[in-house]
Design a protein that fits this description.
The chain is mainly alpha-helical. It contains 5 helices and 2 strands. Strand 1 and strand 2 form a beta hairpin.
């Protein structure tokens, strides 16, 4: 298991180290690259969250997944709401009307993280434009 986690965790730790260095030095406010990398990390987090949500209760037999979660399986409810658990967003995999196998935090995270990534990209573009304008004025 450790042999599998090392190739995943080592690059993640290196990326987080380089991402956190501007935070510690205080230069992140003026760095378009920091905001761009923050957007990339936020989108990766959204992708991992989507994967967690889509694989919640992952089983070829949804009845078995519901029983493993300690819930009853309502076949009539699942048939009546087929489109609900086959959509891309919001993610749902309900055993019955009152219990969802997808954790409650997944769908809000799938909205918030891409919005924050978009804001980071907008800030990076703004900082780049400001930097280009000040460089152009300095050379004129």
């Amino acid at each position: 298991m450790a042999l599998i986690l090392i190739p995943v965790l080592l690059p993640l730790l290196v990326v987080l180290w380089f991402w956190s260095r501007p935070l510690l030095s205080g230069t992140w406010r003026r760095s378009p690259a920091w905001f761009t990398w923050s957007a990339v990390l936020l989108l990766l987090g959204a992708g991992v969250s989507y994967l967690i949500g889509s694989l919640a209760g992952a089983s070829l037999d949804p009845e078995e997944a519901c029983h493993r979660a300690g819930q009853t399986y309502d076949r009539a409810y699942r048939r009546a709401n087929f489109e609900e658990y086959t959509r891309w967003f919001p993610l749902h995999d309900k055993c019955h009307a009152g219990y969802d196998l997808v954790p409650a935090w997944v769908n809000p995270v799938l909205v918030v993280l891409p919005v924050l990534a978009l804001l980071c990209l907008a800030r990076a573009v703004g900082l780049t434009v400001i930097r280009l304008r000040t460089n152009r004025k300095g050379t004129s």
